[in-house]
Design goal:
By secondary structure, this protein is of the alpha/beta class. The chain has three domains: 84 residues, Rossmann fold (3-Layer(aba) Sandwich), CATH 3.40.50.720; 209 residues, Mur-like, catalytic domain (UDP-N-acetylmuramoyl-L-alanine:D-glutamate ligase, 3-Layer(aba) Sandwich), CATH 3.40.1190; 136 residues, Protein-Tyrosine Phosphatase, Chain A (Alpha-Beta Complex). It is built from 16 helices and 20 strands. α6 packs across α10. The N and C termini lie far apart (69 Å).
Length: 462
Amino acid sequence: MTEPTFSVRGKRVVVIGAARSGVAAAELLVRRGATVTLSDLRGSIDDEARLRDAGVTLELGEHRASTLAEADLIVLSPGVPSTLAALEPARAAGVPITGELELASRWLRGRIVAITGTKGKSTTTTLTGRMLEAGGHHVLVGGNIGLALSAQVEASTENTIHVIEASSFQLESTRTFKPWIAVLLNFSPDHLDRHASVDEYGAAKARIFAQQDGSDWAVLNADDPASLELARQGRARRLLFSAGIDSGLREGIAIAGDTIVKRTEGGEEPLVPLAAVKLLGRHLLADVLAAAAVASLAGVDAAAMTRAVETFTGLEHALEPVSEIGGVRFVNDSKATNIEAARRAIESFGQGLVVILGGKFKGGDFRDLLAPLRDREARVIAIGDARPLIKEALGETVPVLEATDMPAAVRTAFASASPGGVVLLAPACASFDMFRDYAERGRMFKQEVARLGDSWSRTREQ
């Protein structure tokens, strides 16, 4: 890969949004010789002194139109929509506007593995990184999880493989972003509070393939027609994966009996025994296959893949086992922030399920959950702004109780559960009506389960 020629030296650059990615972009731009202003609507942000010491000018409490219009370049954090009204004067003045992922990728020296999808990105990204590391590669993992891509640039070498979780928010502003391997795990409606339509959301996801050519790879889910359609215009070579037991997939990564295998015209190569997989949920098995597909393209052998899988027990907030109280298991899937993710989580369990649903609605149809809930004779505890929508969509078929906060939700769910059952936090919504993010929501759930366990134990001892 040739040394990038993109330069910001001596240019005035405004970064909008002082969350993790925006801060990393501002610091990177200063190191690359730009005069940098970091703008955020909040009146104060973390690490103000450190940023000022690094040479970043802070404009807090507003986005100043004059600052934006006089910039040579504007960089948006992923959480900042390109439709932001404050951008209009700058756009009219012809100021280029880009995203943090696009910016940072222009300075990378290593190859890129980019992973997107409506559900499963974090699990697949993390496991892919572990497989590649087990295979002896120098790997940096980040993007939408962990380190922002801007924080990886200085450590990027010709031998680095950057494994990047890429959200639709990050991908929608890409223009030159060119992954060596692009993975689309699945596709279903999501983020309709940000994207104007499902088609717009899909177009953002499809940008992961836009700059690929015949030397690159697209890893695609053979079981997900919507993903295959989004990748239809791509020019990269394809490697399919299928999590169906004894799938009819003739070439690609599949399951044969008790083993994940790679099928080619020359035969079937065993990769990872299913017994090595420690993850809850059938849908998470597809993430393992996707990671194995990437690892196989990178030349990782089966033994290294298996070592990585055996030691991977999943991510926090992704079908995370929490505790068992009075014979009732508690499982935290706070990362299930859309309808499809919640459906897959629900389908991972049997009868006697109690599901905590709700939060800030992002679009979709709660009625899509009716069949799996009814089949499991499940009960629902509705929380957050979406409570009336959940009640309207499900209440005539599934028992729906309401709770005003997480402590009440956990206690109501436990009271509704029977020994041998499961209380599942799978909100199908964003968290921003009640929490800072899905992680805070998941931690609050686990905290309340721990408190419930303590009070249950004390009651039993009396």
